Amino acid sequence: MQLFDTHCHLDFEVFNRDRHEVVERARAQGIEQFMLLGVTCEQWAQLPRVALEIGSAYYSFGLHPYFIEKHQPEHLEALKQQLLEHGSDGRLRAIGEIGLDAECGHMERQQQLLREQLRLAREHQLPVILHHRKTLDKLLKMVRESGPQRGVVHAFSGSYEQGKAWVEQGYFLGIGGTITYPRAKKTRDAVARLPLDAMVLETDCPDMPVCGHQGERNEPARLRQVLSALASITSLSEKDVAERTYRNSLALFGLNR
Ligand SMILES: [Zn+2]
Protein backbone atom coordinates (compact mmCIF):
# COMPACT_ATOMS: atom_id res chain seq x y z
CA MET A 1 0.00 0.00 0.00
CA GLN A 2 1.27 3.44 -0.97
CA LEU A 3 -0.06 6.66 0.50
CA PHE A 4 0.67 10.35 -0.05
CA ASP A 5 0.36 12.82 2.85
CA THR A 6 -0.63 15.79 0.69
CA HIS A 7 -0.43 18.32 3.52
CA CYS A 8 2.12 18.07 6.32
CA HIS A 9 4.28 20.68 8.03
CA LEU A 10 7.24 18.41 8.62
CA ASP A 11 9.65 21.35 8.37
CA PHE A 12 8.20 22.94 11.54
CA GLU A 13 10.43 23.22 14.57
CA VAL A 14 8.42 20.67 16.59
CA PHE A 15 9.86 17.99 14.31
CA ASN A 16 13.50 19.12 14.51
CA ARG A 17 14.36 16.71 17.29
CA ASP A 18 13.04 13.51 15.69
CA ARG A 19 12.10 14.23 12.06
CA HIS A 20 13.92 11.15 10.84
CA GLU A 21 12.03 8.84 13.21
CA VAL A 22 8.72 10.49 12.32
CA VAL A 23 9.35 9.84 8.63
CA GLU A 24 10.43 6.26 9.32
CA ARG A 25 7.25 5.60 11.30
CA ALA A 26 5.23 6.98 8.38
CA ARG A 27 7.05 4.81 5.84
CA ALA A 28 6.44 1.74 8.00
CA GLN A 29 2.72 2.50 7.57
CA GLY A 30 2.97 2.91 3.79
CA ILE A 31 3.09 6.71 3.69
CA GLU A 32 5.71 7.18 1.01
CA GLN A 33 5.30 10.75 -0.22
CA PHE A 34 4.91 14.08 1.53
CA MET A 35 3.94 17.60 0.51
CA LEU A 36 5.44 20.37 2.67
CA LEU A 37 3.84 23.80 2.67
CA GLY A 38 5.10 27.32 2.40
CA VAL A 39 3.59 29.67 4.98
CA THR A 40 5.80 32.76 5.31
CA CYS A 41 8.57 34.37 3.30
CA GLU A 42 11.20 33.69 5.94
CA GLN A 43 10.21 30.01 6.25
CA TRP A 44 10.48 29.17 2.50
CA ALA A 45 14.26 28.78 2.59
CA GLN A 46 14.10 25.66 4.77
CA LEU A 47 11.64 23.79 2.53
CA PRO A 48 13.94 22.59 -0.29
CA ARG A 49 16.46 21.45 2.32
CA VAL A 50 13.98 19.49 4.45
CA ALA A 51 12.33 17.98 1.35
CA LEU A 52 15.72 16.78 0.15
CA GLU A 53 16.55 15.36 3.59
CA ILE A 54 13.30 13.40 3.68
CA GLY A 55 13.86 12.15 0.16
CA SER A 56 10.40 11.44 -1.24
CA ALA A 57 9.02 14.88 -0.39
CA TYR A 58 7.82 17.88 -2.36
CA TYR A 59 7.15 21.46 -1.36
CA SER A 60 5.14 24.55 -2.20
CA PHE A 61 5.70 28.26 -1.65
CA GLY A 62 2.98 30.59 -0.48
CA LEU A 63 1.85 33.29 1.92
CA HIS A 64 -0.58 31.73 4.41
CA PRO A 65 -3.51 33.96 5.44
CA TYR A 66 -2.98 32.95 9.07
CA PHE A 67 0.22 35.04 9.06
CA ILE A 68 -1.35 38.04 7.32
CA GLU A 69 0.24 40.45 9.81
CA LYS A 70 3.72 39.19 8.96
CA HIS A 71 3.41 39.48 5.18
CA GLN A 72 4.86 42.58 3.51
CA PRO A 73 4.22 43.84 -0.02
CA GLU A 74 7.77 42.89 -1.02
CA HIS A 75 7.11 39.27 -0.08
CA LEU A 76 5.10 38.89 -3.28
CA GLU A 77 8.19 39.97 -5.20
CA ALA A 78 10.19 37.46 -3.18
CA LEU A 79 7.67 34.76 -4.09
CA LYS A 80 8.10 35.51 -7.79
CA GLN A 81 11.85 35.27 -7.32
CA GLN A 82 11.58 31.92 -5.51
CA LEU A 83 9.39 30.50 -8.27
CA LEU A 84 11.96 31.45 -10.87
CA GLU A 85 14.85 30.16 -8.79
CA HIS A 86 13.29 26.81 -7.94
CA GLY A 87 11.13 26.40 -11.05
CA SER A 88 13.36 23.69 -12.46
CA ASP A 89 13.61 21.82 -9.15
CA GLY A 90 11.25 18.88 -9.64
CA ARG A 91 10.19 19.13 -6.00
CA LEU A 92 8.45 22.50 -6.24
CA ARG A 93 4.93 21.34 -7.09
CA ALA A 94 2.41 23.94 -5.92
CA ILE A 95 1.62 27.40 -4.63
CA GLY A 96 0.39 27.18 -1.06
CA GLU A 97 -0.78 27.42 1.32
CA ILE A 98 -2.86 30.39 0.35
CA GLY A 99 -6.47 31.33 0.99
CA LEU A 100 -8.78 33.23 3.29
CA ASP A 101 -9.26 32.95 7.04
CA ALA A 102 -12.22 34.76 8.58
CA GLU A 103 -10.62 34.69 12.04
CA CYS A 104 -7.44 36.53 11.07
CA GLY A 105 -8.77 39.95 10.09
CA HIS A 106 -7.43 42.23 7.32
CA MET A 107 -9.81 40.55 4.86
CA GLU A 108 -9.20 43.02 2.06
CA ARG A 109 -5.47 42.53 2.29
CA GLN A 110 -5.97 38.74 2.44
CA GLN A 111 -8.03 38.88 -0.73
CA GLN A 112 -5.49 41.01 -2.51
CA LEU A 113 -2.67 38.58 -1.60
CA LEU A 114 -4.77 35.62 -2.68
CA ARG A 115 -5.65 37.18 -6.02
CA GLU A 116 -1.99 37.82 -6.78
CA GLN A 117 -0.97 34.31 -5.76
CA LEU A 118 -3.73 32.70 -7.84
CA ARG A 119 -2.46 34.70 -10.79
CA LEU A 120 1.11 33.57 -10.19
CA ALA A 121 0.00 29.94 -9.98
CA ARG A 122 -1.71 30.24 -13.35
CA GLU A 123 1.32 31.89 -14.85
CA HIS A 124 3.59 29.09 -13.60
CA GLN A 125 0.99 26.37 -14.24
CA LEU A 126 1.14 25.18 -10.67
CA PRO A 127 -1.80 23.88 -8.61
CA VAL A 128 -2.86 25.81 -5.52
CA ILE A 129 -3.28 24.52 -1.96
CA LEU A 130 -6.13 26.43 -0.37
CA HIS A 131 -6.65 27.19 3.30
CA HIS A 132 -10.13 28.24 4.45
CA ARG A 133 -11.92 29.02 7.68
CA LYS A 134 -15.52 30.10 7.38
CA THR A 135 -14.61 31.29 3.88
CA LEU A 136 -15.37 28.36 1.55
CA ASP A 137 -17.94 30.24 -0.52
CA LYS A 138 -16.01 33.51 -0.72
CA LEU A 139 -12.96 31.52 -1.75
CA LEU A 140 -14.84 29.69 -4.48
CA LYS A 141 -16.05 32.98 -5.90
CA MET A 142 -12.48 34.29 -6.12
CA VAL A 143 -11.20 31.06 -7.62
CA ARG A 144 -13.93 31.22 -10.28
CA GLU A 145 -12.99 34.80 -11.10
CA SER A 146 -9.37 33.79 -11.45
CA GLY A 147 -10.17 31.13 -14.07
CA PRO A 148 -9.52 27.42 -14.58
CA GLN A 149 -6.78 26.00 -12.42
CA ARG A 150 -5.88 22.81 -10.60
CA GLY A 151 -5.85 22.79 -6.83
CA VAL A 152 -6.96 21.30 -3.55
CA VAL A 153 -9.24 22.52 -0.79
CA HIS A 154 -7.11 21.62 2.20
CA ALA A 155 -8.90 20.14 5.24
CA PHE A 156 -12.25 19.98 3.55
CA SER A 157 -15.09 20.30 6.02
CA GLY A 158 -18.34 21.48 4.62
CA SER A 159 -21.65 20.42 3.22
CA TYR A 160 -22.25 18.13 0.27
CA GLU A 161 -23.32 21.13 -1.83
CA GLN A 162 -20.11 23.02 -1.03
CA GLY A 163 -17.97 19.99 -1.82
CA LYS A 164 -19.84 19.40 -5.05
CA ALA A 165 -19.29 23.00 -6.17
CA TRP A 166 -15.52 22.64 -5.65
CA VAL A 167 -15.40 19.32 -7.47
CA GLU A 168 -17.27 20.87 -10.39
CA GLN A 169 -14.67 23.62 -10.39
CA GLY A 170 -12.08 20.87 -10.97
CA TYR A 171 -10.62 20.95 -7.46
CA PHE A 172 -9.60 18.08 -5.23
CA LEU A 173 -10.77 17.86 -1.62
CA GLY A 174 -8.15 17.29 1.09
CA ILE A 175 -9.55 14.72 3.51
CA GLY A 176 -7.98 14.78 6.95
CA GLY A 177 -8.49 13.95 10.61
CA THR A 178 -11.95 15.55 10.81
CA ILE A 179 -13.65 12.43 9.40
CA THR A 180 -12.16 10.24 12.15
CA TYR A 181 -14.52 11.91 14.66
CA PRO A 182 -17.98 10.33 14.82
CA ARG A 183 -19.40 13.73 15.82
CA ALA A 184 -18.27 15.32 12.52
CA LYS A 185 -21.51 14.10 11.00
CA LYS A 186 -21.95 16.86 8.42
CA THR A 187 -18.51 16.35 6.89
CA ARG A 188 -18.72 12.54 7.04
CA ASP A 189 -22.11 12.58 5.32
CA ALA A 190 -20.82 14.98 2.66
CA VAL A 191 -17.71 12.86 2.04
CA ALA A 192 -19.86 9.72 1.70
CA ARG A 193 -21.74 11.31 -1.21
CA LEU A 194 -18.86 13.09 -2.96
CA PRO A 195 -16.74 11.32 -5.62
CA LEU A 196 -13.68 9.51 -4.29
CA ASP A 197 -11.87 10.44 -7.49
CA ALA A 198 -11.76 14.02 -6.23
CA MET A 199 -10.20 13.17 -2.86
CA VAL A 200 -6.67 13.18 -1.52
CA LEU A 201 -5.52 12.33 2.01
CA GLU A 202 -3.69 14.63 4.42
CA THR A 203 -2.77 14.98 8.09
CA ASP A 204 -1.94 18.72 8.40
CA CYS A 205 0.51 17.62 11.09
CA PRO A 206 1.50 18.78 13.66
CA ASP A 207 -2.10 20.09 13.78
CA MET A 208 -5.48 18.37 13.41
CA PRO A 209 -4.99 15.30 15.61
CA VAL A 210 -7.04 12.25 14.68
CA CYS A 211 -9.68 10.89 17.02
CA GLY A 212 -8.13 9.33 20.11
CA HIS A 213 -5.00 11.47 19.93
CA GLN A 214 -6.37 14.87 20.89
CA GLY A 215 -3.77 17.14 22.46
CA GLU A 216 -0.86 15.22 20.89
CA ARG A 217 1.46 16.31 18.10
CA ASN A 218 0.01 14.84 14.91
CA GLU A 219 2.29 13.02 12.44
CA PRO A 220 2.06 11.46 8.95
CA ALA A 221 1.86 7.85 10.25
CA ARG A 222 -1.65 8.73 11.46
CA LEU A 223 -2.75 9.04 7.84
CA ARG A 224 -3.65 5.36 8.18
CA GLN A 225 -6.49 6.31 10.52
CA VAL A 226 -7.83 8.80 7.98
CA LEU A 227 -7.62 6.10 5.31
CA SER A 228 -9.48 3.65 7.44
CA ALA A 229 -12.22 6.19 8.28
CA LEU A 230 -12.63 7.03 4.59
CA ALA A 231 -12.83 3.33 3.68
CA SER A 232 -15.52 2.82 6.27
CA ILE A 233 -17.51 5.90 5.18
CA THR A 234 -17.40 4.91 1.49
CA SER A 235 -17.85 1.16 2.17
CA LEU A 236 -14.79 0.41 0.04
CA SER A 237 -11.69 -1.55 0.96
CA GLU A 238 -8.69 0.32 2.37
CA LYS A 239 -6.67 -0.97 -0.56
CA ASP A 240 -9.08 0.59 -3.08
CA VAL A 241 -9.22 3.91 -1.28
CA ALA A 242 -5.43 3.94 -0.93
CA GLU A 243 -4.85 3.29 -4.62
CA ARG A 244 -7.37 5.81 -5.83
CA THR A 245 -6.40 8.65 -3.49
CA TYR A 246 -2.73 8.03 -4.27
CA ARG A 247 -3.44 8.32 -7.98
CA ASN A 248 -5.40 11.53 -7.32
CA SER A 249 -2.45 12.99 -5.40
CA LEU A 250 -0.11 12.37 -8.34
CA ALA A 251 -2.61 14.03 -10.69
CA LEU A 252 -3.02 17.00 -8.34
CA PHE A 253 0.71 17.72 -8.22
CA GLY A 254 1.39 16.81 -11.85
CA LEU A 255 3.56 13.84 -10.89
CA ASN A 256 1.85 11.36 -13.18
CA ARG A 257 3.38 12.50 -16.44
ZN1 LIG B 1 -1.45 23.58 6.82
From TrEMBL:
It comes from Idiomarina aquatica. Keywords: Hydrolase, Metal-binding. GO terms for cellular component: cytosol. Belongs to the metallo-dependent hydrolases superfamily. TatD-type hydrolase family. PROSITE patterns: TATD_1, TATD_2. A divalent metal cation 1 binds at H7, H9, E97, D204. It comes from the Bacteria. This is TatD family deoxyribonuclease. The keyword Cell inner membrane does not apply. Signal peptide: none annotated. GO terms for molecular function: hydrolase activity, acting on ester bonds; metal ion binding. The keyword DNA-binding does not apply. A divalent metal cation 2 binds at H131, H154.
